[in-house]
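User: I'm putting together notes for a lab meeting next week and I want to include a structural view of one of the chains we've been expressing. I don't have a solved structure, so I'd like a prediction I can at least talk through. The sequence is below, exactly as it appears in our construct file.
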Amino acid sequence: MPQLVLLRHGQSTWNMENRFTGWTDVDLSDKGRAEAMEAARLMQANGIIPDVCFTSVLKRAIRTLWIALDELDRMWLPVTRSWRLNERHYGALQGLNKAEMAAKVGEEQVHIWRRSYDVPPPPLESDDARSAAQDPRYAALAPDQIPATESLKDTVARVLPYWHEAIKPELLAGRTVLIVAHGNSLRGLMKYLEDISDTEIPGVEIPTGLPLSYTLNGDLEVVSRRYLNESASV
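Assistant: Thanks for the context. Below is the predicted structure for the 234-residue chain, given as structure tokens.
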């Protein structure tokens, strides 16, 4: 049966500082590097060795994958990077401290921006230095593909075409696939795979650095899933 592992990157420096990160390209903290090593050990202990890997174009995910593959002695595995696996774009909130924003605009508003399914944060202005429009990694994208902000619903719509075009064929070929990405891009995949409702998905949280393993049937329907620090499949 096809196997799929979803791994949220290890703790980043901005996770540690409680900042909205989004498409900002921050690196792993020391804890995040240790989490990436532990993720590899959990995969190895459970007999799950990937055949092919996917990640975003953001270094916290890329480095998590590098560390994990090094620990697994599989640095030669094929890796495909795509902007479609990037974190949700947090618009004008990117770089701001979550607690400070809650004090400024209220905890309820920050909760809506963070956890609602279809309400995006305030957008970046076109001339904002935080915009990805001038970033060379996105040079090949059409202007309307570079977001100024995104809701989780927008992120799901960005991720799913990549699932169908690039990831699904690898699973149908019987390969074990590892996807190292971000909390919201992975929640989008979880929503699709597990048919999680729009009202339930805001309550789903994915821990950093903890592999989530799926066993799928021939139609890529979920047979079982578990975090690899758990003993029982659900």
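A couple of points you could mention at the meeting. The first strand starts at residue 3 and ends at 8. The chain has seven helices and six strands.

User: Perfect, that's what I needed.
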